[in-house]
Design a protein that fits this description.
With 201 residues, the chain is α/β, with parallel strands linked by helices. It folds into two domains: 56 residues; 141 residues, Endonuclease Chain A (Endonuclease, Chain A). Helices cover 51% and strands 17% of the residues. It has six helices and seven strands, in the order H-H-E-H-E-H-E-H-E-E-E-E-H. It has a seven-stranded mixed β-sheet, sandwiched between helices. Helix 1 runs antiparallel to helix 2 and helix 4 runs parallel beside helix 5. It is elongated and about 85 Å long. The model has no long low-confidence stretch (mean pLDDT 79).
């Protein structure tokens, strides 16, 4: 909505400027018409691209577990390395997503932060995933999130899930330029360091 309002205001300003410089009573030449058409095409293309990007970044609502799992599968299937912070990772046993995560584990493209390892998570760890069990540290983050394309700053983003009582589950995607992305990566690094130090004792 914000992008739509900005581009509508810009269009109004552009039309006003054009009518001021070129009153309607004066006909346009062929070259002027062609030049104006090119400007309109570029303007509309830029506006649509901006609005589409804003829609991608806006929080998406999911009413069922199956919808969330479908989102997670689509998000992870074409991505590179992923870092997932979850509690029990119960969702990974649903549908085809487990085999997807197993393939990522075999390629060393998966890091899992969980409160306590389940049998499914242990199998992913045996296949090559890095698993951090943060429950033994006395740590239990409220936020659940996934960093996609971890290590690739240009294409990386964080997907954050939120659930309020009597409301649909929402997932918001924030790219690497957003402060929340930096906080998520810092949290993962901090938990990894704390876990390594705990294991050394």
């Amino acid at each position: 909505m914000k992008s739509l309002l900005h581009w509508t205001a810009a269009a109004a300003s552009l039309v006003g400027l054009f009518l001021t410089v070129r009153p309607p009573s004066q006909p346009l030449s062929a070259w002027q018409t062609f030049f104006l058409a090119i400007i309109v095409i570029i303007f509309v293309g830029a506006a649509l691209s901006d609005i589409q990007n804003e829609r991608k970044k806006s929080a998406k609502k999911y009413k069922s577990i199956s919808e969330i799992n479908k989102y997670m599968y689509e998000m992870l299937k074409n991505s590179g390395a992923c870092e997932i912070c979850s509690r029990d990772a119960s969702w990974i046993s649903e549908g085809p997503i487990y085999s997807l995560l197993m393939n990522k584990s075999k390629k060393n493209e998966l890091t899992f932060l969980v409160h306590k390892k389940t049998n499914e998570v242990k199998a992913l760890e045996d296949a090559g995933a890095e698993v951090i069990e943060y429950g033994e540290l006395g740590f239990d983050p409220i936020t659940r999130f996934t960093i996609v394309n971890s290590g690739n700053h240009a294409y990386s983003y964080v997907a954050i899930g939120k659930k309020k009582p009597n409301e649909p589950h929402t997932i918001e995607e924030l790219d690497a330029s957003h402060p929340t992305y930096s906080m998520a990566t810092d949290l993962i690094r901090s938990v990894k360091i704390a876990h390594d130090n705990y294991k050394k004792k």
